[in-house]
Amino acid sequence: MVQGSLSELTRQCGDPACACAHDSARRHGPHLYLKFNANDKTHSVYVPPEQGEALKSAHRAWLRFQELGAQVSAQNREQFLRTLRREKERAKAQRAKARGQAK
Questions:
Q1: Distance (Å, rounded) from C-alpha 70 to C-alpha 4?
Q2: C-alpha–C-alpha distance, residues 56 and 29, integer Å
Q3: Are the beta carbons of 52 and 30 closer than 8 angstroms?
Q4: Exposure of 49 by Cβ count < 10 A (0-12 exposed, 13-18 middle, 19+ buried)?
Q5: Which of 10, 34, 36, 54 could be joined to 29 by an S-S link, Cβ 3.0–4.6 Å?
Q6: How many other CB atoms are found less than 10 A from the CB of residue 4?
Q7: pLDDT of residue 76
Q8: What is the mean predicted confidence (pLDDT) over 17-25?
Q9: What is the pLDDT of residue 97?
Q10: Distance from C-alpha of 55 to C-alpha of 23, rounded to nearest angstrom
Q11: Which runs of consecutive H residues, i.e. helices, occur in 1-103?
């Protein structure tokens, strides 16, 4: 798995004689980049073409992991809320029973 975001960018090479300097449709690329945060800094790393598919697959695995984690989290939240409601109802019933015995 690889956390971050992937983007494909086209670039102007900097050579004033190159076609990309005068025509944005003729820029170089697209080139794949991995963007991520580490140590409170944003990093953008060029991904060589021979590693592109492997990185895309690892990134898809990360997205699937996040999706599954969100599902588990939602289920845990619902279970917590059900438990909370049951405890609240139980406490309410105990208070009502105590009031009935006090009479």
A1: 17
A2: 17
A3: no
A4: exposed
A5: 10
A6: 19
A7: 98
A8: 92
A9: 87
A10: 31
A11: 49-102
Q: What is the pTM of this model?
A: 0.71
Of 36, 30, 34, nearest in space to 8 by CA: 30
Q: What residue has token string 């109802």?
A: 89
To the nearest whole number, what is the mean pLDDT of the chain?
94
Amino acid at position 75, single letter: Q
Nearest to 47 by CA among 38, 37, 58: 58
Going by C-alpha positions, the residue among 6, 78, 11 that lies closest to residue 47 is 6
DSSP 31-42: EEEEEEEETTEE
The number of beta carbons lying within 10 Å of the beta carbon of residue 34 is: 20
Q: How many CA atoms lie within 13 A of 100 on its CB side?
A: 6
| C-alpha–C-alpha distance, residues 12 and 19, integer Å | 9
- What is each CA distance from 53 to 3, 33, 56, in whole angstroms? 15, 12, 5
The residue written with tokens 């609240």 in the block is 88
Q: Please state, in angstroms and rounded to a whole number, the distance separating the CA atoms of residues 31 and 53.
A: 13
